[in-house]
Amino acid sequence: MTKKSIAREFKKLIEKDGATRETINGFVQRKRAKKKDMWKVIGGMVDYAWSIRDEQLLSETLLLCDGADIMKMISEISKETCGPEVWQKVFGGRDIPGIGATLDEINAFTLDTDKRFHACDAREGYERACEKTAHCWQPGWSAGNCEEFLKLGNIDLFIDFMNAHTIKDLERCRDKGEPYFNQMIDDEVIEYTKANPNYRRDGSKIYVTKIPFLATKFFAETDSKMKRYYACHCPLARETILMADDPVSRSFCHCSLGYSKKPFDAAFDRELTGRTVSVVFDEDIYECTFEIDIPEDILIQYT
Fold first, then answer.
1. For residue 153, what are the β-bridge partners?
2. Which residues sit opposite 200 in a β-bridge?
3. How far apart are alpha carbons 131 and 252 in whole angstroms?
4. In what order do the strands lie in the sheet with 289-293?
5. Given Cys at both, which of 7, 124, 127, 140 links 44, Cβ 3.0 to 4.6 Å?
6. How far apart are CA 47 and CA 7, in angstroms?
7. Contact 38, 100 (CB under 8 A)
8. pLDDT tens digits for 120-146?
9. Do 274 and 291 contact (CB within 8 A), yes or no?
10. d(CA 14, CA 44)
């Protein structure tokens, strides 16, 4: 079995039955039952989705592998941040979904995990564990950001550089007809991002706002729940917006906070503190925004 053979098999199935969630889940479950190498399986599915530039199929398949080890890391880190007693109540005796689990299975596990942490009154340790996953800062990550920041010598110029880099990437994807991660890019997405930049500074805080996960669908959608769904990037929790009246809490979004801090952790050469401002798991909220604290010495020296 190779990724190419998987892609060919998946192509035939999609052409026959359509690119529905049920078709994708069935394909994954059959391969898992046969104990196939699920990294190759998902890789072949993604390769086919990429080859035909199908935005919905690409997002569905990419999410099957994106963040595959995150919950495992939250489990391991929470032993330290929450203690063994809380860990036992949250993760003890449970099998964590790994590569090859369907999005429904993954998101149901996340929702249950989120509720268990809060039932243990362990919010602070839970949020810290989420921040410290692979989405979080690691020493030596992205040395180029530190070099660029030091070359510019100014926080605001570095933020302008980061925003310009995002727009450049979006324009490249639009011009080449390639997906930006999971989504196809048009002029509307670019103009929206220019008007709503990813990064901005207000005093001693940096604010990071996410581009909608499926922006074109987000713009066209009028239903509140579906609009929030199209905005959310998280493979482990996005489905809970549709699965439950009470989706995961913003505590889980500290994983995304950790990821959003990465360029600035690297630029300032230290791990920063921050918090969630708004997340789409909250009712009638349509964008995820995170606040990052600028250390006083950095603020004084580089503004």
1. none
2. 207
3. 9
4. 199-202, 205-209, 289-293, 274-278
5. 7
6. 7
7. yes
8. 999 999 999 999 885 555 555 565 677
9. yes
10. 13
